[in-house]
Amino acid sequence: MPESPSKPPLNVNTNAFTFLFMVILSFVCATILSLLASALSKPQEVAKDLDRSKEMMKAARIIGYKGNFQLVEKQTITPAKYEQGGILVPTQEIVLPSRNDILDVYNLRLKPFLVDAQGNTTTFEKAQIDMQKYLTDYKKTGYYKEPLKLIYKILPNPQNAAEIKDLENKPPVGYVIPVNGFGLWGPIYGYLAIEPDGNTIIGISWYEHIETPGLGAGIGEEYWQTQFPGKHIFQANPDGKTDFMSAPIGIVVVRGKVTEVLGDNPKALSAVDGMAGATLTGNGVTQAYRDVFTAYKPFLQKIHDQHIKSKE
Questions:
Q1: What is the pLDDT of residues 120-144, one digit of tens each?
Q2: Mean pLDDT of the chain
Q3: How far apart are alpha carbons 146 and 187 in whole angstroms?
Q4: Cα angle 106, 173, 74; round to 5
Q5: Which of 169, 141, 170, 176 is nearest to 156 (CA)?
Q6: How far apart are CA 147 and CA 242, in angstroms?
Q7: Of 10, 35, 232, 276, which sees the most CB atoms within 10 A?
Q8: 280-293 burial, b if ≥16 CB within 10 A, otherwise e?
């Protein structure tokens, strides 16, 4: 029986083979990267949600700049630790909370709702709006531009398990407003927490920006953010009185130091020091606060009036 002719050996040195090898290799790499991106997308989104939750609680001063829980009463700050259910209790040491602890306290004490252009409030359920879709769709453009604007209640720290069950019926100890605008190099995103009087700042955070390190990036640093607690967003008249119907609204980042620029002028209570070499970033922050607070002004006026009545 005659032998079948043998196949010629594969020539791996041809251009065609090299091209085929590169195509296959590229396909395999693309497939692996696609699978990795898909596998990591959920953990990345969870990490972003956790970071936003922490930054919101930083503005509300539930979390301090060292990353620990804290209790604030009359500007006295006491380190706190997590107890089961989300109760925070004083401690003498800095205890860093776990991811689950942070999310428990966030879900317990920060409650989102919606505000219309007249300052009336509603819930996502009553407005028949999918909350997750809303949060995703308007994060970049700004919630303050929407007919129904996002805001969060800050509920008090419960003292026991019984209070946890009834916590949502307790009066809020403040509100958190999402803030966004443009710095020198791009968009900036943050939060500002305000007391129930609708005027006094509890705290702020700027959690996402691409400003210049050592200059405009200072908006995300403790040394600059600690200027804000106690400042007023409704600017006072020269006589020190505030007309909440007509007063300009916002926090002004001055060029230089407030003490040198405004001295003892009542407007100093609505201003903070600028950052050396970052005038344009400061201008962007000023404009962001002005734009956002103007949109929320009817709501802020309403809660201010309610606060005054509650004191009578």
A1: 999 999 999 999 999 999 999 999 9
A2: 89
A3: 18
A4: 110
A5: 170
A6: 28
A7: 232
A8: bbbbbbbebbbbbb
Least confident of 9-18, 72-81, 123-132: 9-18
CB-CB contact of 151 with 299 (8 Å): yes
Model-wide pTM > 0.70: yes
The first and second tokens of residue 245, run together, are 């119907």
Look at the block and give the residue holding tokens 């609708």.
Answer: 198
More confident residue, 312 or 249: 249
| pLDDT tops 50 at residue 75 | yes
Give the CA distances from residue 116 to residues 85, 148, 214, 237, in Å, rounded to whole numbers and listed in that order.
Answer: 33, 5, 39, 28
- 8 A C-beta contact, residue 230 and residue 200: yes
Q: How many CB atoms lie within 10 A of CB 188?
A: 24
Q: Taking residues 234-254, report their average pLDDT.
A: 93
3-class SS at 220? helix
**Cα Rg, the chain, nearest whole Å:** 26
SS3 167: helix
Of 130, 171, 127, the closest CA to residue 303 belongs to 171
Could you tell me which residue, 19 or 58, shows the higher pLDDT?
A: 58
Two tokens, residue 91: 């401690």
Cα 61 from Cα 205, distance rounded (Å): 10
Contacts of 171 (CB under 8 A, 6+ apart): 156, 196
User: What is the pLDDT averaged over residues 87-95?
Assistant: 93
What pLDDT digit, counting tens, does each position of 145-191 carry? 999 999 999 999 999 888 998 899 899 999 999 999 999 999 999 99
* pLDDT at res. 161: 86
**What does the chain come to in residues?**
312
Residue 153: other Cβ atoms inside 10 A: 19
Q: Which two tokens stand for residue 226?
A: 């600690």
Helix ranges (H only) for 128-188 are 131-137, 161-165
